[in-house]
Amino acid sequence: MNNSYILLRHAHSRFSSDDFNRTLSEKGFSSLEQLEFLNACKIDYFISSPYKRAFETVNSSPVQFDKIVLDNRLRERKLSSRFIEDTEFEKTIQYLWQNPDKSLIGGESNREALNRILDLFADLEERYSDKTILLSSHGNLLGILINHFDSSFDYEKWEQMTFPDCFLIDRNGIVKRIMKD
After folding, report:
1. What average pLDDT does the segment 66-75 reach?
2. If pLDDT is split at 50, 70 and 90, which confidence band does 159 have?
3. pLDDT value for 144
4. Longest C-alpha distance within the chain, in Å?
5. C-alpha span between 158 and 92 (Å, rounded)
6. What is the three-class DSSP state of 12?
7. 1, 129 contact by CB (below 8 A)
8. Cα 99 vs. chain centroid, distance in angstroms?
9. Sheet of 165-169: strands edge to edge?
10. pLDDT band at 91 (very low <50, low <70, confident <90, very high)
11. Strands 165-169 and 175-177
């Protein structure tokens, strides 16, 4: 790879059926101070999901940046065209992790979501070299991406991700969690 990537999972958000406009919760806003360590990372570019909670995580944090570019390929993975109840959510995610080519009605499979974010990676790899690029997105999509680089990152490790959380994919494709506990 030409670049290294910091994967930032958004901070805790308020539940809403309007997935696009879900904002960070008070807990989410108060957790953003944990991201101050990113200022030492010398990040060249900031790219975010257009979903409000992912954008707010970068924009409201103490991380210093010049500009945040929104890219729809970092949007949350669509599970289904029908509402998934909280009681169904974990079983649904687990099923999709175990069956990466399967999808629910109107939803994306893990493979489709992975191909979407890998398309972004291909564009960034073609456009830049020796840069550090922060991608602010969602746990489901980032977990699928991390699994692509590190097959030991499975459903159980996805469940352990925090709000927010940070991982580094270095130029050798090695993934390392860099979030300060």
Report:
1. 97
2. very high
3. 97
4. 44
5. 14
6. coil
7. no
8. 20
9. 68-70, 45-48, 132-137, 4-9, 165-169, 175-177
10. very high
11. antiparallel
What is the band of 84 on the pLDDT scale with cuts at 50, 70, 90?
Answer: confident
How far apart are the C-alpha atoms of 62 and 179, rounded to whole Å? 15
Is the pTM higher than 0.85?
Answer: yes
Q: What is the CATH number of domain 2-175?
A: 3.40.50.1240
Is the preceding peptide bond at 164 cis, omega within 30 degrees of 0? yes
Sorted by where each begins, the domain ranges of the chain are 2-175
Q: Given CA atoms 135, 79, 31, 58 in this order, what sign does their dihedral have?
A: positive
DSSP 79: -
Measured CA to CA, the distance from residue 59 to residue 32 in angstroms comes to 10
CA dist., res. 77 & res. 11, Å (int): 17
Token readout for 175 is 């993934």
CB 6 within 8 A of CB 145: no
What pLDDT sits at residue 34? 96
Tokens of 87: 């009681």
